Amino acid sequence: MSVPTPREVFALLSAGISAGRWHELADLYAEDAVVDQPFALPPAPPHLEGRAVIGEHFRRAAEGPLQLRAANVVVHETADPEVIVAEFDYDGRIATTGHAFRVPNIQVLRVRDGLIVETRDYHDHRGLARAFAAAH
């Protein structure tokens, strides 16, 4: 069995988020993985460390009304075979109100031995906050 490439791991992550399979996503991360979200706004954490903490983050997301579907995905390979840069939009919807929105994202992923060991997620947290505010 071959080890998935960084591009393939990102595709699994993106497909899981888009399908709302939040409970499966932590399995894509190494035990000691680190996720940094430099643009995070409360309640989103700016730093997550460890598969268990990342899994809890995804479990909380599963309890919320946010539905996301990745669109316009472009993946860039880098000189480092472990690292890719993904540009994409989230076409989102607030399930409780039906409010639809789109926010841009960039993710820098480091994948080693088929597992995510590090990401820097540049999601448009202000855009997400605006979408939630507009839905109420």
List keywords for this structure.
single chain, 136 residues, alpha+beta, six-stranded mixed beta sheet, 4 helices, 6 strands, globular
What would your notes on this structure say?
The chain has 136 residues and is an alpha+beta fold. The chain is built from four helices and six strands; from the N terminus they run ααββαββββα. Strands 2-1-6-5-4-3 form a six-stranded mixed β-sheet. A hairpin with a 2-residue loop joins strand 5 and strand 6 (115-123). The mean pLDDT is 95.
Mind sketching the topology for me?
Layout (H helix, E strand, L loop, with lengths): L5 H13 L3 H4 L3 E8 L10 E3 L1 H13 L2 E12 L5 E12 L5 E13 L2 E9 L1 H11 L1
Q: TL;DR?
A:
The protein contains four helices and six strands, in the order H-H-E-E-H-E-E-E-E-H. It has 136 residues and is α+β, with helices and mostly antiparallel strands. It starts with 5 loop residues before the first helix and ends with a helix.
